[in-house]
Amino acid sequence: MSNQQVNELLVRLDQSAQAFNQLSGNMADPNQVQNIAQSVQAVTQKLANPNTSMNHQQIETIRKQITQIRQELENLDEWLEESSGQLASLYRSSLGDTKPQFENAPAVQQQTMNAYASQTLQAYRKQAQVSEHLHQLNADLMALSHQLEQQTYSSQIPVQAPGEPLQTDHDPEKNIYIS
Question: Domain range spanning residue 39?
Fold first, then answer.
């Protein structure tokens, strides 16, 4: 594929995948993260080759792969949301009534005030970063799939000029006019 927009999306997708992979290191199932990374890499490699000419069936296969990757990301996102909720609960319960004082203290002092709460807060923030990168990766995959769809089907759909009839049937009484 030689389309400029697809190439730009592939670069963004690669960057998002790398950031997600680096941040999610010990937060999620390493096999799941590795599988997602490998799937993204397989899709980008297929599309990045400028000498590759793909037919509609091959494009649809890639779009199905993208959908599967997005489903895996959705499953991981659900797990992250649940885990983040648990971390927030642990954080609040470990601080109790001292939560306002803790949150107003500098990070160095927080560590000495309550090391467990400080570590839990750091883990929560890291999970939030992972979730942001996961959402970006998902958005990039969605944009890529959309762009592939546009390229694939825009060449098949005739474009009508405004005011000219859109031929929906051979019966002239059934023409639809675009204004």
Answer: 4-87+132-158
Collapsed DSSP state (helix, strand, coil) of residue 177: strand
Instruction: Count up the domains in the chain and report the number.
Output: 1
**Chain CA centroid to CA 124, Å:** 20
178 burial level (CB within 10 Å; 0-12, 13-18, 19+)? exposed
Position 117 scores a pLDDT of 93
| Tokens coding 13 | 């997708």
Beta strand spans in the chain (E): 165-166, 176-177
CATH code of residue 144 = 1.20.1440
Higher pLDDT, 99 or 153: 99
Q: What is this structure's pTM?
A: 0.71
pLDDT per position as a tens digit, 57-76: 888 898 999 999 999 889 88
